[in-house]
């Protein structure tokens, strides 16, 4: 059987081959981990900080997915599996629906610490895994996967992808009287973990499911709008208990919203001056 079919039949998963990482690759992880842990002090949700413990495994360097999965399995029943790169949508959703998080195994080069187009193992583990140890967020991720499998049938993937983008990747949460980070795309980025909370440029808008699913997003720069949830339970509830079929029908009748737009009905926490986009 050729490699393509072998990988496809295993749900696109491949061995992590942890032994094959070089000392230099482990050192890149350690550098990123130390720098980003310092940056996030006081800036992320408590749930993320609690979850960081699962990443501190027996040795420094890139975590071994098998060890990580063992820890996660005990906490929330999740596992981390390696994939060769981006996988087809249905495969991705199928894994999430079965409490498996797919992660890339390559790590960026030392000269790419600040910018990387494709998610690497640092983004996937440091960004995503801590919150998979939170029982409510873990349930939200599974509910999202199940919702994704249904969205494929409705041809509504683009809309549902925006929910993932503005929550799992770029979400903010209200906590301890202020805003905190929880999105993996932010917490794994040195620059955006400052920008998303402190910069006057982006809008910060109270989360609304329909609003988020209408809003286009930037893939080439920091976000122009961030959406703020009150807690993970509300997010889980809205995703697991909403009937998306009528919502998708309604969304088809409505225009998309530009990434920097503010609507009269938005509950604004901060109206961005969008100075970054004008640079
Ligand atoms: Fe991600």
What does this structure look like?
The longest helix is centred in the middle third of the chain and has 20 residues. It contains 14 helices and seven strands. The chain is of the alpha/beta class and 279 residues long. α5 runs antiparallel to α7, α7 runs antiparallel to α8 and α7 runs parallel beside α12. The strands form two sheets. A five-stranded mixed sheet has the order 4-3-6-5-7. A two-stranded parallel sheet has the order 1-2. Helices cover 50% and strands 11% of the residues. β5, α11 and β6 form a beta-alpha-beta unit. The structure holds fe (ii) ion (FE2). The site of fe (ii) ion has 7 residues, from α6 and α9.
Topology:
Layout: H1 3-9, H2 23-40, H3 46-51, H4 65-76, E1 79-83, H5 89-97, E2 100-104, H6 121-132, H7 135-154, H8 157-169, E3 172-175, E4 178-181, H9 184-187, H10 190-198, E5 203-206, H11 209-214, E6 225-229, H12 232-240, H13 244-253, E7 268-270, H14 275-278
Parallel strand pairs: 1-2, 3-6, 5-6
Antiparallel strand pairs: 3-4, 5-7
Bound molecules: fe (ii) ion.
Residues 119, 123, 127-128, 169, 184-185 line the site of fe (ii) ion.
> H/E element string?
HHHHEHEHHHEEHHEHEHHEH
Largest sheet strand order: 4-3-6-5-7
Please identify the structural class as seen in this structure: alpha/beta
Instruction: Name the shape in a single word.
Output: globular
Question: Characteristics of this structure?
Answer:
279 residues; binds fe (ii) ion; 5-stranded mixed β-sheet; alpha/beta
Concise summary:
Helix 7 packs parallel to helix 12. The protein has 279 residues and is an alpha/beta fold.
